[in-house]
Amino acid sequence: MNNGGTAPARWRVRGGLAACIVPLLVLLLTLVGACGKPPAPLSNDAYIWQRKWTPSVTSAIEYSSGFVQTWHVLAAEKDTQDDWTLVSPGWATLAAAHAPVTAVIRIDGQLDDLNTLPVAHIVKLAADWKQHGVTLAAIEIDHDCATSRLAVYTRFLSALRAQLDPTVKLTITALPTWLDSPALDALLAQADESILQVHAVMNPARGLFDPTQARARLREFAQRTTHPWRVALPTYGTRVTWGDDGRVAGIESERPMLLANGFTQGVSHELVAQPEQISAFVARIERDALPGLKGIVWFRLPTDADERAWSLATWRAVLTRAPLTAAIAADVRQSAQQPGLFDVSLVSGGNTDAPLPAVVRTGSSCEAADGINGYALDYDAHGMLLRRVQPGLLRAEMRRDIGWLRCGEADNKKVSVHVEP
What we know:
The chain has 421 residues and is an alpha/beta fold. It has helices at 2-36, 55-64, 91-97, 119-131, 150-163, 184-189, 211-222, 275-288, 312-319, and strands at residues 43-48, 70-78, 84-86, 101-107, 136-143, 169-174, 193-197, 229-234, 237-242, 248-252, 258-259, 267-272, 293-299, 326-334, 341-350, 354-355, 359-362, 368-371, 375-380, 383-388, 393-394, 399-406, 417-419. The strands form 5 sheets. An 8-stranded parallel barrel has the order 1-2-4-5-6-7-8-13. The chain has a 4-stranded antiparallel beta sheet with strand order 11-10-9-12, with no helix packed on it. α4 packs across α5 and α8 (275-288) runs parallel beside α9. InterPro entries: DUF3142.
């Protein structure tokens, strides 16, 4: 009786251990398998920020079909002069893209009284866009207000949300400077999604984008919102002029130079988002897998006519996470019009825009030379050279003239130039 009762008890204990161990082994194997998997890629959205839809904009949208999930299209602007300006996009192009569309309302950050922008205007805009056959996924409010104005901004969003069609999401852009405010939580609660902007004109040394600072901001933001969110990353360059007081006096990007207070003098710098740096940053945040981070919104859609944005070849390579390859060589060609005059160019190969080289060495005994397009003539102990005076990118598969040489009766074989490593 005792033996008969003891044996089943022992089996019950062993069976209980097996029942615990088997699920643990399954969980362990699952975790090991998950660690070996590559990180899930973040989705790609993109801003169409052009105010005029030229053929180059249409061509860029068609080129990007298939790897952009949602288009964030500039729809209207409200400036500090109380002017409400509508942007008319290419409706047929958007409809043919077969992708969801977010209509972006840009409200100048200096606008103090948001009551001057009736909510009814935005509600009507949403209804109008639906009539044009696009799949309107969201209304996005882009309002870079001061941190002290977040409570006012929150009340405005609450009023808008109450009247907006519930089938249309409400999205907002967010600034890193807002992270120090306790009012941010209430603001983010009003939006279905938010987009953290981590690129900005700061100073020449830090440029448009600081990856270390950006990762820190992303981690902070992930702790502040309970809703899905995305990060806005740059694809462009801009020329910035600083005044003697250290403040930004002018910005030249997708628009002509914008000058403040009639200021026309100052120190200018060309700030450029480097494709390799941005690509590495994307790979890192995909590995980080931050809570709630759903994707990237690229600012802005490049076109062939946009000289301050990446080339379309680079744009596609970065968005598809393809390996980036770059090669820049110097080339010299004899002028057909003037004997003895030679044009110096840089030629780009590979699939990515590459930084302009710092020095292009002239290996000949030419008697005169000069630089153009960001280069100037200089000399050192080894002779004459063209030195870069403004940073920039050379687009993939493109040529850029950077100077000229005058070399008497020499021919191409006797005139050589090369990029210094």
